[in-house]
C-alpha cells in the first residue's frame, strides 16, 4: 500500500513541475493569449472526458448527453456569481452539486435502459436540458447569459483538473469502482455477486455529471458567456469522441484524447474553412485504424516505455 | 436437521408456457443435493427463481425462514446464496484477483469519501480483502494467474475461478449450474471431488444442476428430477436410479 | 377559443403534421433499415438528406431538370453516396466495437456537413420553385399543393420500398441478414452486397425527403440535416427500431405531435416535445410501438 502512496506523490510532484513550467511561460508571455485560451480549453475538455470515461468506460453505460451537465454547471455557476454576486468558489461547489443532483435524478429512471437505448435517452435528455435553458428568460434565453466575469485562471483550471483526475482514479481503485467495472464486464454476474447494480450505475453517473458541471463553471467563467448553442448534442459527441479516441476505459487515454483533439482543433483554427473537414477525416481514419482507441483499455505508464515501443503497440493491440 | 432452503409449490409461467410447475424442494444445512433432468426440463429456470433472477409466478421460496420471492439477485446473494452460471460469466477483462475481490465487496465497510480521499478504513480493508482473495485463489490453485485477465485462463480454470468467486461472497448455500459442462471425464471427476471437499471445508450446502445423471449419482446425497417443468421424482440416489419414470425420462440412457 | 375554431385549428395542424411527418418517415426508414441490418445508429443519415436536397438543387438550377427527373437524380446520387460511405467508412469496421463505428458515423456526419460548407458556403440557398404553388381552401382548411406533393411522393416511395422488402429477392435477403447475418451468410447470401443495397435504398429515400423539403420551404443549407436527422431517428425508435412500418408510423406521429405543439403552445418547445416523447417511449416501451420486448437469457 505504501508504494501506491509513493506513486501518487510522484505523480503529484510531476504535476507541480508541469504547472510551474506552464505558469512561468504564461507569466513571461511566452505563451500568448491564443494558446492560453486553448490550454484552458484542453483542461476543461480533460475534465469532461475523464468524467465521461467514468460513465462510459468504467461502468459501461453508454451516455451521450454530457453537454447537458456542462450546461447546468455553466448556468448555475453564472447565476451564483453574476445574479447573486457570490464568490467563484461557491459557484464551483454549487455548479458541481446541481449538475450531480440532476445526474442523479436523470440516472435513476434511465439507467435501467442499456446499450443504444440508454445512449439515445441521454442524448435526448441533454437536448431537453438545453431547450429548457433556451426558454428561461432569467438566464438570457436564446441570447445566452452574458457579462460573466473571468474568474477561471490557469491555476484554478489546472488544479481542479488534477483533483478530479485523482478522485476518479481513486474511485476506480476502490470497492465501489470495482463494482462499476464488474457491471461493465457482466451485469448479471455482477448482480449475483451481491452488487446493487442500479446503485453503482447511478453513483458513477452522478459523479460524472457533477464533474461535467465543474467543467461548466470553469468554462462560463473563462469565456464571459454561457450560451445555449455551446451545449448542443454536437458538444456531447465531441466529448464522447475524445474518450473513444483515447481508448474507452483508459484514464490516460481519455486525457490524451482530450489534449489531442483540442490541440488539433486549435492548430486548424488558422484554416477555418478546412478545419472541420480535416478534423472529421482525422477522426474517421483514426477510428478505422484503431477502433479500440489509442490505448485500448490499457493505461499509459512509464513501464510501457521501459519495455520499449514495440511492446506498447502489442499491449494495446490485444483488446 | 436444520432446514436452510424451502421451495413451496413454486411455478414459473412465461406467457402461456409453464417452465416449472408446482415445484417443491427443501435443502437442509450441510446437504449436497442434486437437481437433474433432460435438457429443457426447467432446471435453470428453477435456479433463476431461487437466485432472484426471476420472480416466481406462484408459490413461495424461503431461505432461513426469510422470503426470497420478489428479492433482487443482489439481495438474495446478501442473504447467503451464491451461484455459478451454465455459460461462464466471469468479469473477463478484469484480472483474476479483481474477479474475487469484487465478490468480497459486500463485506467492505469504508465509505465513498474514504475510498476517494484515501483515508480511514480504506487501506486496512483493501489490504484485508487482497489478502483474503489471494488465500482463496491459493486454495483453488489459481494464485499464479492472479494478475492475468480472466478471459485468458484455460477453460477448466475459468470454471474453478467462477466457483472461487461465488465462495468469496461467503454463502451458506452454493448453487452450481452444470459446472462440469465441457469438461472431460478426468476433469469432471476432479471437480466432483472438489465440490465434496468445498462443502466440508467451507461448511455450506450445495445444490448442483446436471443433466448427466451418472455424475450426480456419485456425489449427491439427495436428488430431485425435473421433466417438462414437473418434479417427477425425488429421493436417495439409489431410489432415483431405479425409478421407472426417471428411466423413461432419460429414455435410452444408461443409468449406472 | 370556441369549439369550432379549436376543431378547425386541430384539423389544420393535423394536415401540417402529416406532411411534416411524411418527411420524418422517409428519413426514419433509412435509419431503421440500416440499424436493422448492421445495428448502427448512422448519425450521418441526416446529412445524406441534406446532400439529397443539394443534389436536387443542382439538378433543377444547373441542369435545368424538372421536378421528377430532379428527384430521381437526387435519389440516385445520394444512393451512390450512401454506398461509398458504407464501403469506405463502415465496412472496414465490421468487427470493431460498436461504439467505434458510432464515432466513425459522427465523423462522416461532420465531414458531409463541413465538406458541403466548403463547397457551397454556409449560406442558405433558395430552392427554385419547380411547382406552381397553389393553395386550396376546404371549408377554411388550408392545404397547399406542396403538402399534397409531399404526401403523394412519400406514399409512392413507401409503397415501393414495402414492395421491394416484401416481394423481391433482395428484400428477402435484406430481411434474412437483419434477422441473423451469420445464418444468412451460410445460406449463400452476399452480405456485403445486401448491406450496400440497404444503404443505397435508405439514402435515396432520405434524398427524396431532402428534395421535398427544399420544394416545401424553398430554402436549404448545409446544416439542415442535423435536427431532422435526430428527429427521424427518434421516429424510428418510437415505431420500433429495425421495423419498417414502425418507422413510417413513428414519423407520422412525430410530425403530428410537433405540429400540435407549435400550433397550440409555442414553437420553441417543439423540439423539446419530440425529446420528451423519446424519453417516455424509452422508459415505458423501449422496443417501440410495434416492437417486441427481448429479455437477455441467463
From TrEMBL, chain A:
It is found in: Cell membrane. The chain crosses the membrane at residues 12-31, 37-55, 67-86, 92-111, 118-136, 148-168, 202-224, 244-269. This is High-affinity branched-chain amino acid transport system permease protein LivH. Its main location: membrane. Keywords: Cell membrane, Membrane, Transmembrane, Transmembrane helix. It is a multi-pass membrane protein. The lineage of its organism: unclassified sequences, metagenomes, ecological metagenomes. GO terms for cellular component: plasma membrane. It comes from bioreactor metagenome. GO terms for molecular function: branched-chain amino acid transmembrane transporter activity.
Automatic annotation (TrEMBL), chain B:
GO terms for biological process: D-alanine transmembrane transport; L-alanine transport; L-isoleucine import across plasma membrane; L-valine import across plasma membrane. Keywords: ATP-binding, Hydrolase, Nucleotide-binding, Transport. Pfam families: ABC_tran, BCA_ABC_TP_C. InterPro entries: AAA+_ATPase, ABC_AA/LPS_Transport, ABC_transporter-like_ATP-bd, BCA_ABC_TP_C, P-loop_NTPase. GO terms for cellular component: plasma membrane. It is an enzyme of class 3 (hydrolase). Signal peptide: none annotated. Its EC number is 3.6.3.-. Residues 5-253 form the ABC transporter domain. GO terms for molecular function: ATP binding; ATP hydrolysis activity; L-isoleucine transmembrane transporter activity; L-phenylalanine transmembrane transporter activity; L-valine transmembrane transporter activity. Gene3D superfamilies: P-loop containing nucleotide triphosphate hydrolases. This is Lipopolysaccharide export system ATP-binding protein LptB. It comes from bioreactor metagenome. The gene is lptB_23.
From TrEMBL, chain C:
GO terms for molecular function: L-isoleucine transmembrane transporter activity; L-leucine transmembrane transporter activity; L-phenylalanine transmembrane transporter activity; L-valine transmembrane transporter activity. InterPro entries: ABC_BtuC-like, ABC_transp_permease, BCAA_transport_permease. The chain crosses the membrane at residues 20-41, 71-90, 99-121, 141-165, 194-217, 232-257, 269-287. GO terms for biological process: D-alanine transmembrane transport; L-alanine transport; L-isoleucine import across plasma membrane. Gene3D superfamilies: ABC transporter involved in vitamin B12 uptake, BtuC. Coiled coil: none annotated. It is a multi-pass membrane protein. Keywords: Amino-acid transport, Cell inner membrane, Cell membrane, Membrane, Transmembrane, Transmembrane helix, Transport. Belongs to the binding-protein-dependent transport system permease family. LivHM subfamily. This is High-affinity branched-chain amino acid transport system permease protein LivH. The lineage of its organism: unclassified sequences, metagenomes, ecological metagenomes. The gene is livH_18.
